[in-house]
Amino acid sequence: MTTSRETIRINEKRFLEDFSRLTRDGATPEGGLNRPALSEAHLAARATFRNMIQERGFSVREDTAGNLSACHTLPETGKPVLLLGSHLDSVANGGRFDGALGVAAAFEVLQVMRDNGADSEMPVEVIDFTDEEGTWVSLLGSRAMSGQLTQKDLTNPRGDPEAFQQALERAGLSISGLLDAARPADSLQAYLELHIEQGTRLERSETDIGVVTGMVGIHMFLITFLGQSNHAGTTPMNKRRDAALGAAEFCLMVQKTVMDNYPDCVATVGRMDFSPGAFNIVANRVTVFMELRSEDPTRAGALEQALRETSLNTSAKFGLKVDFQHLESVAERKMAPTIVEHFESSVDLLGLSSRRLPSLAGHDAQSMATLCPAGLIFVPSAGGFSHSFREYTPWEACVEGANVLLHTAMQLLKPSE
Ligand code: HGY
Ligand code: MN
Ligand code: MN
User: How many angstroms is it from 114 CA to the middle of ligand 2?
Assistant: First the structure.
């Protein structure tokens, strides 16, 4: 016999309206989002969320890491809080669904629970974490909240400490505030997140929901090739110490090394900075931004070592020097088995299909897993596209995901019999 609780569903119209409102700031003509953390567009999106929180009669909370939340009751009730959320920041020229869907779904869950008479003491908080995408530092806000952020993480953010300081000031934040944002573990009951899969496994297997078992570790490096700048016209080709050649060959070797020997890992060069950076000057300095990912820290370490050796061989070949600097790492994490099971029982209640899978993307749930039981569900990504304006998830799939989030939150909040 279905109880009335089991028939509760999200308000689809309000959910769509809220999602549309949360994806207006920084919208791109192609239909994506361009609001890297602490940019004007991102701060506008936060102001929009803050207004929505106040309009709907919830309390606004912002911690010293800039994490912005809607609280049903202020955390002073002393009860451990059930935290739901994701992130409103995007990558440069990213998609509409990465992060924003999770914040909108969590906000809808908060509202529909209140609509259905959840008592005023219901300790539920909906959060937008700062800089999940690592425009400055990966999972910045959730690592700050979980007390994992160190001074070292903040010394050379993406190689541009000055720009980081300006961004912090723009947002009214500070390094000391970031390092002071940790929450006590006993203040949280659990953390739940809904996110797009950003891959094709769900779509290919025609599965409604992905229940995430864990996330890969992510390791970021700056590899700088150092040569000698010289005239592009008068310097013979065989007399050059051209940093561009070392960087280019290294980039190709990253791909070859992984595909030949580390098929269980991925590695990416997403940016190269040339200096002096002019048509008519042989580059004397090229910085390669490289990251590698693996579920297994030992494999990640072995791949790093292999690429360090490769960088030395490549630089020697072109008469260069090389500096291989570890920038930061996000550790691989497992999700709480109890939360996995709660998600799966919600999937069953809703008559949906699900499969357990690891996440090859990083998520705030990865940080939160060190503080409290954390869980993450995926909804399918059309064609697997993400970090691109092509990112898309059919709306009915978003609604299904939000209902799974809702019923899992209700299970966790249900007073124990
Ligand atoms: O990079 C990632 O895996 C995530 O989208 N921040
Ligand atoms: Mn994301
Ligand atoms: Mn992302």
Answer: 27
Q: Give how far Cα 102 sits from Cα of 85, 154, 171, 250, Å.
A: 6, 27, 22, 37
Q: Which of 217, 244, 192 is nearest to 401 (CA)?
A: 192
Q: Which ligand is nearest to the CA of 195?
A: 2
Element (H or E) spanning 306, and its range? helix 297-317
Atom of ligand 1 nearest to the CA of 360: 3
CA of 196 to the centre of ligand 1 (A): 11
User: Which runs of consecutive H residues, i.e. helices, occur in 332-416?
Assistant: 337-349, 364-368, 395-413
Rounded Cα distance between 370 and 188, Å, is 11
HSE, side-chain direction, 13 A CA sphere, residue 57: 5
For 385, half-sphere exposure in the C-beta direction (CA atoms, 13 angstrom radius) is: 15
pLDDT tens, position by position, 5-62: 889 999 999 999 999 999 999 999 999 999 999 999 999 999 999 999 999 999 999 9
Ligand 1 atom nearest to CA at 133: 6
Instruction: Tell me how far the alpha carbon of residue 323 lies from the centroid of ligand 2, in angstroms.
Output: 31
* Structure tokens given for 184: 């006590």
Q: Report the distance separating Cα 122 and Cα 13, nearest Å.
A: 24
